[in-house]
Amino acid sequence: xxxxxxxxxxxDTVHTEETQLRALRLHALCRVYEQADRxxxxxxxxxxxxxxxxxxxxxxxxxxxxxxxxxxxIDLETLTQINGLNYHELSHHLYTPRKGTTIAQWVLENxxxxxxxxxxxxxxxxxxxxxxxxxAPYLVATVSRWxxxxxxxxxxxxxxxxxxxxxxxxxxxxxxxxxxxxxxxxAIVDIVDKYRLLAxxxxxxxxxxxxxxxQDEVLSVMDLPRDxxxxxxxxxxxxxxAKGRPEPGKAQERDxxxxxxxxxxxxxxxxxxxxxxxxxxYNPSGCGPDTNKPPEEKEGKPHGEGDKPGEAYVPLTIAExxxxxxxxxxxxxxxxxxxxxxxxxxxxxxxxxxxLADAIEEVLSRKDVIQDVKVxxxxxIGGDGKHEDVTKxxxxxxxxxxxxxxxxxxxxxxxxxxxxxxxxxAWERETPTGKINIQRVxxxxxxxKSYDRWDEGNDGADVEAVILVDRSGSMSSxxxxxxxxxxxxIIKRALEEIDAxxxxxxxxxxxEMAYKRTEKAQRTKYKFxxxxxxxxxxxxxxxxxxxxxxxxxxxxxLFIVTDGVFDNERNDDVISRISKRGILTAxxxxxxxxDNLYYANNANMQEGNLRHKAEVYARIGSSKDLLPxxxxxxxxxxxxxxRGC
Length: 645
Description:
The protein is of the alpha/beta class and 645 residues long. 46% of the residues lie in helices and 11% in strands. The protein folds into 3 domains: 2-379, no CATH class; 397-421 and 461-642, Rossmann fold, CATH 3.40.50.410; 425-455, no CATH class. The strands form 4 sheets. The protein has a 6-stranded mixed beta sheet with strand order 10-9-8-12-13-14, with helices on both faces. Strands 1-3-2 form a 3-stranded mixed beta sheet. Helix 4 (113-131) packs across helix 9 (204-222).
């Protein structure tokens, strides 16, 4: 019995450790993709991993959500798949019209959401690759995996691949040739080829015509169910994107122009004799007829349209088409039928399955893909110290630290060291419970002092901090910039005594790095962050957020030091978001008595507006008071963590 209990306890412990490790890696994965998406889009995109959800991935226009069920490991193949899902959602962020636009309202009023989603998926990926061609392999792998993994939908998937010209032409033709409604192909070609290159909002009216046609001429005829997946990200039935703003019209036009000649064109389609649904065996729930139909062209270069943009082509004659079909029939090997949620008489032909497998394998063997994914993998698994901060380093004068600042640093460091020692694991001696101390018992010690108990300690002193220092012109008044620079040096040096990294950013109209995360403060020199500019912390807040969210430290803090007021519109949202992510935010305004009197008489300058949604807020008379305030915040946070609050 004891052995069984011990085994069970060990198993639970292992499970807990694995769960914690997975949670840490998924958290790091979010930060990796968040940073990449922000670089590509220029927007403060958020990335979250959800335990489960309605699709492999989805987006609300401000954040991208990845389904944890799709992330079973952090290997090359899985991360390549996640890259594709993420880039698809980033395409929505960049190009899809939001819920409040006239076209989205029109789509909702007319119940055209399914038609709109299927066409929009192909348009946004086209424009995204037009701007960033290097993302194409990831989308190829993701879409090919979905096509291979959904044989029950194979008979209807041509409506989802026609506009994805980045896919190998043989794959697109394969799904065209097994499409259950060949009579609809001319309409699909005409609608999708026009829609995939639209630029919004200029082309809203043209889009309405194409969306209505797609619904009436294609989806209604196919009797497609409303819950059909509609593509690799399950966008067929998703609700409109509600947040954020897409790229402006001119940018979309440029991306569409770049994408116009993307990929090889399909060969000329040879129509098949029209059949009834019963003859086809088509089932609108996703299952279709025998898919072991031969491809429409001979091996080698396809007939019809040329492989290069603008290349002329010669239409097939009836005799040529019959000859191709007859030869292909005798050369095609029948495969096993696929299965769906009702008995299927279809599936994916062997030659097409091989093409999909080859497409995925080709992507996974590309050197550029391997290099990119390995970098992400290293960061996700490696943890701390792997964050790549792209903030430009500023030029600051190294200035001698005054003696009183060195004394202040030593006092602050001593208090932090004491707190860390209290947090470290250690034996508690002479306790009423725990491990019995035989020597003490032999000496006749009282019962309630005969035991020693091992204290695991806590993570209260596991700290990382970021300090944002306003370097606007007003900070030079009264030498606030000098005293704030010295205070930052004291805080950084003291925290480094307990192995806590501290990053210091300076901001005016732009963000600059004063102290890197891995850079130690000099023992007798500080960097003078002199005032010279405006007051706009937005890019600096984003840099601080990315850095702190990539950290595995348990106690994370953000200090904002300014002597002025900045706009609330975007900055407050970022500060609030940082606080909700478990990072302590402290806003410090350096204000003279005269400033306080002015703000007291100005309704727009009350505390609610000045604290910018930070958790801790203080007005101090001069930057000399910054150090005791910061010291109080740090020590209180560590003690709070130590108490388990």
